[in-house]
Amino acid sequence: MLESLVNPRNEKGPWKMFFVGLLYASISILLVHWLFRNDPTLSKASGIMVVLFCIMCSLPFMYFIIRREEKEDEEVEGLFSVWRVHKDAISALMWLFLGFIIAFSFWHILLHDSNLLNFQIQSYCQINSPGNVESCVQQYSFGDSTGAATKSLRFFSIIENNVYVMIFTLIFSLLFGAGAIFILVWNASVISAAIGIFTQYKISEIPLGIARYMIHGFPEIAAYFITALAGGIFGVGAIRHGFKSKKFVRILENTAILLFIALVVLIFAALIEVYFTPVLFK
Q1: Where are the alpha helices (DSSP H) in the chain?
Q2: Contact status, residue 274 vs residue 155, Cβ threshold 8 Å
Q3: Cβ(215)–Cβ(276) under 8 Å?
């Protein structure tokens, strides 16, 4: 019923996806809080269920965007033409992602329930305190936000994590098309958990937390969106045209261009995260 009320075919303007993200993320996290909070066993899976509910809401949008972009991809070639054709879709996904982050962050802090993003907090600790994950999780579950890994250890953890995410995004989009939304919703929830930790779970500090993580987060997530589009376009193109048609060759070339753009953007985001962001937010 929800996908009928908010029809992706009727949504005009990438910025409107921000409100769609707010709506879907809010519904997901509130449902999990109400349904699972009184059951100790189910509450342990809250972090995953939040992601799954949000994915179910978002799949129609992701599927529609990939199908539309694949059709447009058949008619263009070259780096700048490919980017011009797909930039609106990437912009729409970025707005959707920002809506996810704001809603997840707000409700996570307001409801003050560590279980809602418990797996996400663990993922944060694996990146930032890889040698001491267990104590990090205990510390950051609505506790004080102190302590950090050494700079070199954190650097390699970030690089490793980003490469894995990009690979999994490509694999998910190749195998399931719109299924790449799992990777994207998961990253939104992890960033929201990190915002809660950085702000020490204060709602008034959410804008500062978003600025802290989105300076490098926006280009990083844009790289994942580009990867997801590339994989989805390749998969749909292979099904529609086969591997021997001229249109598929063009789609293959454009997919390679998109992956190259994604890799460049991801490297740029990593440089910002390691060398620029810590200077502004110590």
Answers
A1: 2-5, 17-36, 40-43, 46-73, 79-111, 118-128, 133-140, 151-176, 181-198, 206-241, 246-271, 277-280
A2: yes
A3: yes
pLDDT of residue 92: 83
Cα separation of 20 and 229, whole Å? Answer: 19
Could you tell me the two tokens for 248? Answer: 């598929």
Sign of CA dihedral 246, 250, 253, 258: negative
What's the angle, vertex CA 215, arms to CA 272 and CA 199, rounded to 5?
115
Tokens of 221: 């997530």
- Give the type of residue at 8: P
Amino acid letter, 132? N
- Residue 33 CA to residue 184 CA, distance in Å, equals 21
pTM: 0.78
pLDDT at 26: 95
Q: What does DSSP assign to residue 9?
A: G
In the block, which residue shows the tokens 């993320």? Answer: 25
Which of 51, 1, 63, 4 minimizes the C-alpha distance to 25? 51
Residues of the chain where predicted confidence (pLDDT) is lower than 50: 5, 7-11, 143-148
Q: Report d(CA 11, CA 3) in Å as an integer.
A: 12
Distance CA 69, CA 72 (A): 5
CA distance 132 to 129: 6
